[in-house]
Amino acid sequence: MESELGRFGKTETCDIMGALPLPDGSSVTGSSWGNLLVWMNGAVKFQVTRIGRIPCHIGAITQILFHADNLLTTGELAFRILGHFY
């Protein structure tokens, strides 16, 4: 994904600080506005927010980890555990 430019709808472009490749060939990255971006074939396919379109984090997502069927993210101000993924 190095040097890739991804946009989802009208979202702003940003530098990617955290990224996680997934076994199916897609990738999850953080964004400077606190949401996760899911990439497939070099393009952003969807953006992950909390219910009500609230950002996952206040500030940038800096690290992403997949552990015990959970997606864990850390940001500039806190960390979150996002559900079970199979």
How many beta-strand elements? 7
Helix and strand sequence: EEEEEEE
* Overall 3D shape: globular
How many individual helices?
0
Give me the side-by-side strand order of the main sheet.
1-2-3-4
What is the alpha-carbon Rg in Å?
A: 12 Å
> Helix coverage percent of residues?
under 10%
CA(first)-CA(last) distance: 23 Å
SS-based structural class?
mainly beta
- What count of structural domains? 1
Low-confidence stretches: none
Strand content: 35-45%
Q: What characterizes the major β-sheet?
A: 4 strands, antiparallel
Question: What is the average of the pLDDT values?
Answer: 77
Question: How would you describe what is shown here?
Answer:
- The chain has 86 residues and is mostly beta strands.
- The chain has one domain.
- 0% of the residues lie in helices and 42% in strands.
- It is built from no helices and 7 strands.
- The strands form 2 sheets. It has a 4-stranded antiparallel sheet, with no helix packed on it. Strands 5-6-7 form a 3-stranded antiparallel sheet, with no helix packed on it.
Secondary structure elements and pairings:
Elements: E1 19-21, E2 27-29, E3 36-40, E4 43-48, E5 61-67, E6 70-75, E7 79-84
Antiparallel strand pairs: 1-2, 2-3, 3-4, 5-6, 6-7
Short description:
With 86 residues, this protein is an all-beta fold. It has no helices and seven strands.
